[in-house]
Amino acid sequence: MKAKGITLIHGNASARLAEEISRHLGVKLTDVLVTKFKDGEIRVQIKENIRGSDVFIIQSTNPPADNLLELLLLADAAKRASAKRITAVIPYFGYARQDRKDQPRVPISAKVMADLIQVVGVNRVLTLDLHADQIQGFFDIPVDNLFVTPVIKEYFGELDPSIWTVVAPDVGATKRARAIARKLGNLPLALIDKRRPEPNVAEVLNVIGTVEGKKLLILDDIIDTGNTIVVAANRLKELGALEIRVAAAHALFSDNAVEKLCRAPVEEVVITNSIEHRKEFNMKKLKILSVAPLLAEAIRRIHKEESVSALFI
Ligand code: R5P
């Protein structure tokens, strides 16, 4: 799948993923300097001529905020270098969970991110499993929000609906879980009624659906502190689940999430490489799937002005 006329740039947050995407596309990465001045300010420079080219900047915007800043500065550099079009490829779109004013005097951070990304001259966004679909509406430019469904489907294959049930760990995860349950073989769905008494703390109030004697696949978009998954798995085990596996698009693994997941009654934790971590995790039950082929194909289609909807399987 060679695609010419594409410029692939990446920041420090998505270096390995960008390498993989570059291999899939048969397009070499453009030489870019992304470093720091002595005072800590970010310094970027695109080292090759990109005038008139179709530029894709690959960078997840998980913390630290430097990741977002690198993306913004790279986009500005590309705009001022006369790129024909700039697509921000944001495998993990940070600040997406702050997508509404749910308390007095709080920002809608996801909207602020969208505004910043647009103001520097990004023409379109390619992202994966946005926390809430409606964030697309925070942008006035096209947003292609792909789902990791095909990657998950390829890994798990077809599961037996008399044995397996998909679990949505909160109401927000229901739509995504239902879609995956259908793809994996019309599996039954169970829902968890989750409450957050305070940020980063999760409590299970009720479980809706049959889980006793079942093998369960808990499906979420994000694993952050791991609390949602751990409290869900503990309760599901108490209710008689036979086996529990977990799949999530994005793994932030903040705090001591890895230790908690290692101890949790979970056989396997399946995540993607949408977020890159500096260290290797010592977790035997962890499986990391690559979203590079999916993103590479989307980039190729965007470049060729072909439909990306075929990727929404
Ligand atoms: C929340 O709405 C998200 O979909 C995830 O369930 C949440 O971000 C997971 O966070 P944590 O792992 O800290 O419970």
Structural commentary:
There is one protein chain. The protein has 313 residues and is α/β, with parallel strands linked by helices. The protein folds into 2 domains: 6-146 and 293-311, Rossmann fold, CATH 3.40.50; 149-289, 3-Layer(aba) Sandwich (Rossmann fold). It contains 8 helices and 14 strands. It has helices at 15-25, 66-80, 109-119, 149-156, 174-183, 227-238, 257-263, 292-303, and strands at residues 6-10, 32-36, 42-46, 54-58, 85-90, 124-128, 143-146, 164-168, 189-195, 203-208, 215-223, 243-251, 268-272, 286-289. The strands form 3 sheets. The chain has a 7-stranded mixed β-sheet, with helices on both faces. Strands 1-4-5-6-7 form a 5-stranded parallel β-sheet, with helices on both faces. The protein starts with 5 loop residues before the first strand and ends in a 10-residue tail after the last helix. The chain binds ribose-5-phosphate.
